[in-house]
Design a protein that fits this description.
Blueprint: H1 2-15, H2 18-23, H3 26-47, H4 59-65, E1 74-79, E2 82-87, H5 93-115, H6 118-153, H7 161-179, E3 184-187, E4 202-204, E5 210-213, H8 215-227, H9 232-250, H10 255-272, H11 277-293
Parallel strand pairs: 3-5
Antiparallel strand pairs: 1-2, 4-5
Helix pairs in contact: 1-6, 3-6, 7-8, 7-9, 8-9, 9-10, 9-11, 10-11
The protein binds zinc ion (ZN).
Amino acid sequence: MLRIGLVVFVLAWILGPYSLRSAVPIWLVFALALGLEVHFLLGALRSGPARRPDRRPQPVDRDRYGYEGEADDLLLVRYGDEERWLPYSGETDEELDALLTEKDELDEDDDDEEVTSPAVTESQHVFRAVRRFLVGLGVIGALVLTIWFVESRTGWGSLAGDTRLEAAARFSGEASRIAEKPVTIRCDESRDYVGSVQHADGVAYLGGDRAYLTPERCYDLYRLAFEGEVTFSQTARALAVLTHEAWHLRGVSDEGVTECYALQSGVEVGRRLGLSEDTARRMMRQQLTENQLRGAGSLEYRVPADCRNGGRLDLDPGEDRFP
Ligand SMILES: [Zn+2]
């Protein structure tokens, strides 16, 4: 069940929403799965094989009926309607024949017991436990290879180094226009700065000259600017993140105000990167609506009430449309 769960989770991680990727480092999941496999292996080796029940007379029977230990042969004999265990001790031929027949059956029982003696099942048991462990390792290895393959063939990481530099320079140029000074946008492939905290699609030093975006957001911007490919809400989010960090670099610290300015700047940046003005406006309006629908968990990022057409935060009061 755990292995099936692992496979389902990894597929969800690859195909699912971006928030899952940014919230859960996949290598941590693999480390946990590996730890569980080792735990199961050690547990199985420690517990040993399951013992078969011993159907012969038990010590409690011997106490009750007064028989000695294993040294005597035990025979099942009939007294009227009653069956009883007795030690064999030189009966007459007729009695012996009858008793030997009974004893043969008992010996067959004994043979069964010897086939499954602990010495044999011990090695079988170890073999099974190790085999199960190797299957588990195989599953984890296959999933790691899948992730590696997907990551290297898709997304920001699959682009050539020159292309990534060229794209980052383009994003830096757009951010510099907003910040009104030269700034650098980096796409944080090592995820040292972004991606580990929820909603942290980007990080900027307040009033500084450098900001980091997640590779996913950089790839969305690359697809728009270099390939003309648009995925409406993803492209919209990527534009909003780029402009949001640019406004932080300009020196705006309040998250709500920053986001309000970012969504207005996003129209111009989107248009410059290849969108029609109409599409760019619809994207930023969608981002504004999404922002207003956010739950109490991200109140800090909610735009203030005066983030509206003609409001205090309207960057272009003369313009009738917002954003
Ligand atoms: Zn911010």
